[in-house]
Amino acid sequence: MADAPLIAARGISKQFAGVEVLSDVDLDLMAGEIHALLGENGAGKSTFAKILAGVHRPTRGTLALNGQPVEVNNPTTAQRLGITLIHQEPISFPDMSVAENLVLGRTDSALLGRVPWAEMEQGAKDLMTQLGVRIDVTKPMRGLSIADQQMVEIARALASDSRLIIMDEPTAPLTPKEVDTLFKIARRLRDEGRTIIFISHRLEEVQALCDRATIFRDGALVDTVDVVDVTDEDIIKLMIGRPLRELIHKTGSEIGEVALEVSGLSQPGMFKNISFSVRKGEIVGLAGLVGAGRTDVARAIFGVAPAQSGTINVNGAPVTIAEPSDAIDLGLAFVPEDRAVAGIFKTLSVEHNITATVPGKIAPRGFISRGIEKALTAQSVKQLRIRLASVRQPIGELSGGNQQKAILARWLHTDPQILILDEPTRGIDIGVKAEFYDMIGKLAADGRAILLISSELPELLALCDRILVMAEGELTADLLRADATQETIMHAAVPKTGNHAQESAA
Amino acid sequence: MTMQTETAKPTRDSADARPMWQVVLVRPEVMTFALLVGAFIIASNLSPFFSDAQFILESSTYYVEYSIIALVLTLVIISGEIDLSPAAMMALSACVFAALYQAGLPIGLAMIASLATGVLMGLFNGILVVVFKLPSIIVTIGTLTLYRGLAQVLAGDRSIGKFPQWFNGIDYRLILDVPVPVIVFVIISVALAAILGTTVIGRQIYQVGTSEIASIHAGIRVRRIKLGLFVAMGVASSIGGLLTASRLASVRYDMATGGELQMVLMVMLGGTYIFGGRGSILGTFLASWLLVIIATGMTVANIAITAQLIVMGALLIISIIATNAIYARTQR
Amino acid sequence: MSLITKFLSTLLHRREAGIAVMIVLLALVVGAIQPRFLTLETLRIIALAIPLILIAAMGQMMVLVARHVDLSIGSILAFSSIIAGIMFRDLPDVPIIISIVAAIACGGALGFANGVIVTLFRLPSIIVTLGTLSLYRGLVFLVSGARQVDPQYIPRSLIEMSQTSPIFGIPWIVILAFVIALLTYFFLDHVRLGRQIYALGSNPVAAPLRGIKVVPLTILVFTMSGALAGLTGIIYASRFGYVNPGITGVGFEFTVIAAVVIGGVSINGGVGTVLGTVLGVILLGMVNVALPLLGVSAFWQDVIYGAVIVIALLIDKSVRDRSARALAAARSAA
After folding, report:
1. CA nearest to B204 within chain A
2. Within this chain, do residues A270 and A203 fall inside the same structural domain, yes or no?
3. A301-to-A426, A443, A505 alpha-carbon distances in Å
4. Can you tell me where the transmembrane regions are (chain B) (predicted)?
């Protein structure tokens, strides 16, 4: 490794709307190394990578390239400086040929200049040969697999002679064979003296490919290690090393009959053969990394995107859920992960948002009764302590936590017996989070069955009676609370490259 | 599938509620109303006719068929879709009516057949949008050409008339000094305003237009609502076609050519948001009268009917821009 | 994987081949029923029907490729046509070519205005051009005083463009149309700026990330569409020998859109070739000529246009769905 680092980051910090998601990161990236960035969801590794690639600008801190201070203000500048970010699902122009996608955006010829088709295609072919992949460069991007699209992106990086190539979870959508090819190419690029940042959840891959690894946790850099010196266990410890927060789980909820049972639920490309059950009064956690297919399973159960095969039983009877209204009639409720898109009606009033699921209640004789609506809303505001200026203000004006309370309130009015909560506390203040934990515990104590999807392990460990773990579209563990630790969950959640499923999660 | 960065940690729990005067005043319907008052004052100065309510009522009969359809179109646009085919649906359903009547069918049955045609056309639009998931804006451009073409096939380039005397001239039939079509318009306005403002369906139309995904997650039957709205468009267009047939005492395939512009204009001028989720029947109601006064005013002021095209086109664009600006202000 | 790409690309290429086959079949079938269809005279009629649609179709195609629509071309056509007609009538001393250039420039200016409104206020182009469709038609009436420009004012030389031929009996305007098509082909396929239009329509979100200047490019596309509609206005005057503010170009946009989508240009942007569009125009022109020969009322024309637009949308959608499904299946089978 050369002496002067290719990139020297000093004190890089990033705030989003006042929240610090990355603080004071110092990191040297050497020429000719493959460097892994590791961490849980939300640890800050992707934010850091995006700052390097000019997608985000740091709030504080400096970057130096070969010892020279540089400002990477946008992706175009990054490209010019020789930094390329390869997205997991690459940005492309699907209707245009591979060769064109390679040169689009290059500014080395005039706008009214001719497109040198033959030269362009030859150049593209050469790059593909150089990479050792067989992609017909005259074919449109649309037909390419994700793996091939990534190769095109890598070829783009080579074409502009990038020194630093950042791969953001490139292997998640790839098959083992495709991963092998990618690794071969990555090693070749390293041997040419280029630097590669490799973001991945798969520790085996990190062991197999990377020279050094930097671990992020809660927006800070924890440690940078030589990969040969550490074991998977060491890395996992570094990733989750924070102390367990003091959380009170409402114990004493009676666990009763099976309320929800799914078996053999499959959806090609998303998840496969998912079977589990949730009992009344039980809180079952569903852990897994982003992209493991947890949300897809939840959406399938609730009828948003029904699964291709498999059965669902509610209270012991088989049911057909073709659309969400069927699920609601069966006593299911679903708090979706993406609150801004799938949860709230941003410009409509809090009132209208809260009563959206209970048209029959607010309009007993077909016409909406303002009195009932007001009463229902007031009841929710009081019960869940939703803080707002007026129930008639647009819900978009509330804080994230209060929006989420309103969404939960919407479902409580349907008196659901089975609740599916998908990342219910994401993006919510610590204080409000505690309120949510309280509520979830109470709901279970009332005898409701709860399926809690969360990426926060302490949350799952504190709340759940049982924890299911998914990896790459399959259930990999069903842990009783007594057996569950952050380590056991992480082990089940981290995909194994060597023997991972035929079917890879998209 | 990149890592989620924690969304913003709020500094406050919610924004302050907007003051009441803002909620009431800063909305597009107020703009429409102000324009209506302004247009009325200018028109009255131009011609004493405008102080006469009877004159305005009579003038309105030329536009009221469009106004009726525009009311339903308001609901369609609030739900996040659009239908550009109503003028063609008017023509085709009127041609079906006239051709069947001419072929010897009793007039009542011919009218029912016309309404059924409306249902079918609306259903066809709706199925293309809801089942085949095609963008309504382009689909209805296609079906507008299709329906107009079918009307032409059915009626050729002749006028079909000779309806019984009682059928013709509905615009001259008065109830309490008000022409019947205007009464129909007012009744439909009140009915639709009631549906939109006080029923679950109305509420859900707004919700679907605000966020289709959130609506699906909340268990709202989005497809059923949209299909219903497209069918309602067909029925309203058919009613509009029959009213026009009665007013003109004849039917031609080119009935209401270019009418889609006027209808979209009424909805936009009434402050309905082109991207869905916001708007009101009141706005469209006011805009309908505004358009009557503008169009009649220009005629009275001897501005060529043709120059009115300029005004209509410019108004459409300006009203969309203005409405967008008002919503952008209140959205924060 | 390669199987899927192969399938998709053949399907894309087959679109042009498919239209070509349909053209041949149509000629044979109609010719079998009505032998008059297969005469040189009919060929000439078809050839003369083509330029009007083809030139404007080149503009509309670019607009669709950029993921927009221009509904105002019929009115732009009329405006340019009337401007030229008035200049012919009232300024007989001005060389014809000046009037023609003025007409095209007017078309370009109106198209430019469309582009500016669409980009500046970020409005859906279909609604904006619905508005300008009316607005521009109003301008036509305004500048013409609602008066027709009568045949005697249209210069002989211009009318002869539709009648005389420099070579093989192919009229001038037909040659002009194909030259325009060739130029468009060259621009879209061999000039970097032209390729950017495809990129813009193929992925409008990513386009600016690759340094494409979306606003000027969009305005340029609308301007070109307007200018080509303007040129069509001249051809119109040449073909029909008069300009009428209330008739010229009314409903023209639907004919052109129908021709373009038959030619395989996707309403979703990013897809479309000049060859396909040319074939689409020829097919539509043939249908128009064949209908009366077969004794089918010309009234069926609009039905065909409308049905064609709807069917093309459905085909486009199913191709896209199928390719998405094939990809998902390939991914889970890999």
Report:
1. A356
2. no
3. 21, 20, 18
4. 30-50, 62-82, 88-116, 123-147, 182-206, 227-249, 255-275, 282-303, 309-328
Core vs surface per residue B239-267: b (16+ CB within 10 A) or e: bbbbbbbbbbebbbbbbbbbbbbbbbbbb
pLDDT band at B75 (very low <50, low <70, confident <90, very high): very high
Scanning every residue of chain C, which has its alpha carbon at the shortest distance from the alpha carbon of B259?
Answer: C134
Q: What is the Cα C65 distance to its own chain's centre?
A: 12
Helix (H, G, I), strand (E, B) or coil at B174: strand
Q: What is the pLDDT of residues C212-267, one digit of tens each?
A: 889 999 999 999 999 999 999 988 888 887 888 888 888 888 889 888 988 888 88
Angle at CA of residue C238, ends C106 and C140, nearest 5°: 35
Put simply, whether C299 touches B (Cβ < 8 Å) is: yes
Domain C-terminal end among A240, A255, A281: A240
Chain C touched by B317 (CB under 8 Å):
yes
Query: What ranges do the domains of chain B cover?
Result: 50-256
Crossing angle of the two packed helices B222-248 and B64-78, in degrees rounded to 10:
170
pTM, full prediction: 0.83
What counts of helices (H) and strands (E) characterise chain C? Answer: 12, 0
Is pLDDT above 90 for B175? Answer: no
CATH for A489 = 3.40.50.300
Determine contact: A231 vs chain B, CB below 8 A. Answer: no
pLDDT digits (tens, 9 = 90+) for A372-428: 989 999 988 888 888 888 888 888 888 788 889 999 999 999 999 999 999 888 767
Q: Is B35 helix (H, G, I), strand (E, B) or coil?
A: helix
Residue A2, in any domain of the structure: no
Residue C165 scores a pLDDT above 80: no
Q: Do residue B309 and residue C146 have CB atoms under 8 angstroms apart?
A: no
Give percent above pLDDT 90 in chain C: 29
CB contact under 8 A, C132 and B313: yes
pLDDT mean across residues, chain B: 84
- The yes-or-no verdict on residue A147 having pLDDT over 70 is yes
Tell whether A136 is covered by a domain: yes
**Tokens standing for residue A41:** 């969801």
Which chains share 3+ C-beta pairs under 8 angstroms with A? B, C
Q: Which pair of structure tokens corresponds to residue B242? A: 């029959």
Query: In this structure, are A89 and A114 located in the same domain?
Result: yes
Partner-chain residue, chosen from A75, A96, A107, that has the shortest CB–CB distance to C209 = A75
Domain count of the fold of chain A: 3
Give me the residues of B, 185-214, that contact A with CB < 8 A: 198-200, 203-204, 206-207, 210-211, 213-214
Q: What topology does CATH give the domain C2-333?
A: ABC transporter involved in vitamin B12 uptake, BtuC (1.10.3470)
Check whether C112 has a pLDDT greater than 90: yes
Are A308 and A448 part of one and the same domain?
yes
Domain extent listing, chain C: 2-333
Q: Specify if A133 maps to a domain.
A: yes
Residues of C within an 8 Å Cβ radius of A: 1-2, 4-5, 8-9, 12, 189-196, 198-199, 201-203, 206-207, 209-212, 266, 269-271, 323, 327-332, 334
Range(s) of the domain holding residue A464: 245-331+417-506
In what helix (H) or strand (E) does residue B127 lie, and over which residues does it extend? helix B107-130
- Residues in chain A closer than 8 A to B204 (CB atoms): 359
C22: its two tokens: 């349909």
Chosen for mutation from B311, B317, B318, B324 (greatest number of chain C CBs closer than 10 Å) is B317
**Residues A143, A47 within the same domain:** yes
Chain B residues closer than 8 Å to C69 by CB: 138, 141
Which residues on neighbouring strands pair with residue A8, listed in sequence order? A28, A64
Chain B nearest CA to C133, separation (Å): 7
Residue ending a domain, among A215, A240, A265, is A240
CB within 8 Å of chain C, chain B residues 137-156? 137-139, 141-150, 152-153, 156
- My answer on whether A327 and A391 are in the same domain is no
Asked if C302's CB is within 8 angstroms of B152's CB, the reply is yes
d(CA C55, CA C104): 12
- The complex's ipTM works out to 0.81
CB–CB of A389 and B15 under 8 A? yes
